[in-house]
Write a structure and sequence with these properties.
By secondary structure, the chain is an all-alpha fold. The protein contains eleven helices and no strands. The protein has one domain: MetI-like (MetI-like fold, Orthogonal Bundle), CATH 1.10.3720. Helix 5 packs across helix 7 and helix 7 packs across helix 9. The radius of gyration is 22 Å and the shape is elongated. The two termini are 20 Å apart.
Length: 275
């Protein structure tokens, strides 16, 4: 689909969603170029009001809030994307293997996933991060493992429906191996639902990272992160200063954009299935 076809055929909500996502990706990619100041440069007094020098004012240390939000987009979005990719890969492969092999392999993988899902996700993450530390690699691996359980459940359910189809049985009779069946038969037919789930899970991961940062166990200062920026400037609300609303609004803005795209994609997939 070309850009012109997309603009003609897609609903207004999808175009708004793509615009929001592209705006955030642009800000994250070119933050050092767009930002008037560096990430941690102290440029004035604390909680200054918006002005031509500081578009959104300054934070609790006197750093330019607009620059911090741009760098926060780079940190938060890139880490959320990496976590979503890893959780998608682990969960989807595990789910398709369980659906294809069945038997004791399926039972073992389901038991492992059920054990992980038995604990509340936030409490489990807080417990593990308090032991392993709050480094970026630990944050990525732990959240990716926790979130992969959702992809496992979905891909296993989709795989169970697909493996009983005639074209999969034909592939088995031809002597095709497990990986060939997964990559050539199951994955292409399950892709639309999995892609839509990726968009939704990205939102959950994005919000989860922000929540952990707000609690002090996510991306650590002085690195800019929207969740930690809300926490650091929360007391400004007491004095009627809207500084924490800007990073909170940025979180909501991107989440809405991604959900608009996911809703449009799910709608397309349901229409195709009904044809």
């Amino acid at each position: 689909m070309t850009i012109k076809q997309f603009l003609i055929t897609s609903p207004l909500s999808a175009r708004i969603g793509f615009g929001i996502v592209l705006l955030n990706l642009f800000a994250a990619s070119f933050a050092p170029v767009i930002a008037p100041y560096t990430e941690n440069e102290i440029v004035g007094d604390i909680w200054l009001a918006s002005s031509y020098k500081h578009f959104l004012g300054t934070d609790q240390l006197g750093r330019d809030l607009f620059s911090r939000i741009l760098y926060g987009a780079r940190n938060t979005i890139s880490i959320a994307f990496l976590i979503t990719f890893l959780s998608f890969t682990m969960g989807t492969i595990g789910g398709f293997i369980a659906a294809t092999l069945k038997g004791w392999t399926d039972q073992l993988l389901v038991c492992i996933v059920d054990m992980i899902m038995a604990f509340p996700t936030l409490i489990f993450a807080l417990l593990i991060l308090s032991v392993t530390g709050t480094s970026i690699p630990a944050l990525v691996v732990i959240i990716a493992i926790l979130d992969s359980t959702k992809f496992f459940r979905l891909s296993r359910a989709l795989g169970m429906d697909i493996v009983v189809m005639d074209f999969v049985e034909v592939a088995r009779l031809r002597g095709e191996g497990v990986w060939w069946i997964i990559s050539h038969e199951i994955l292409p037919n399950a892709a639309p639902a999995l892609i839509a789930e990726c968009a939704i899970r990205f939102c959950f991961v994005f919000l989860f990272i922000s929540a952990l940062s707000f609690l002090g166990l996510g991306i650590q200062p002085p690195a800019a992160d929207w969740g930690s920026m809300v926490k650091e400037n929360a007391s400004a609300i007491t004095f009627g200063i809207p500084v924490p609303l800007w990073p909170a609004g940025s979180i909501a803005f991107l989440t809405i954009g991604v959900n608009l795209i996911a809703d449009w994609f799910l709608n397309i997939n349901s229409q195709i299935r009904n044809v």
